[in-house]
Amino acid sequence: MEKITLTMPASRALRGRALAGVVGSGDMEVLFTAEPGQTLTIDITTSVDNSRGRWEALFSRLQTVSSLPAGTLTIHDFGATPGVARIRIEQVFEGVSHA
């Protein structure tokens, strides 16, 4: 297991919390908690060692196509593909947007 913490600039304010996915399904789960500020802190626990570069690339890509919200994003990954990871992350951001 590898633990990764990333910090990204945030330019969007949201309120609330959201959960997407289920780690026990062999997939991943993502929990987002909105917080005031200008930073998104991402705490990742993954079964895939040496994956920091993949996660950094994923969040850099997300940042270029959408503004990231301020808060804490907790990810429990059980080897999900980058496509599934992006879907789960976008699901929690959308869930909080509509809360």
Automatic annotation (TrEMBL):
GO terms for cellular component: cytoplasm. GO terms for molecular function: acyl carrier activity. The modification O-(phosphoribosyl dephospho-coenzyme A)serine is found at residue 25. The keyword Ribonucleoprotein does not apply. Pfam families: ACP. Covalently binds the prosthetic group of malonate decarboxylase. Its main location: cytoplasm. InterPro entries: Mal_deCO2ase/Cit_lyase_ACP, Malonate_deCO2ase_dsu. It comes from the Bacteria. Keywords: Cytoplasm, Phosphoprotein. The keyword Nucleus does not apply. It is found in: Cytoplasm. Subunit of malonate decarboxylase, it is an acyl carrier protein to which acetyl and malonyl thioester residues are bound via a 2'-(5''-phosphoribosyl)-3'-dephospho-CoA prosthetic group and turn over during the catalytic mechanism. Belongs to the MdcC family. This is Malonate decarboxylase acyl carrier protein. It comes from Enterobacter soli. The gene is mdcC.
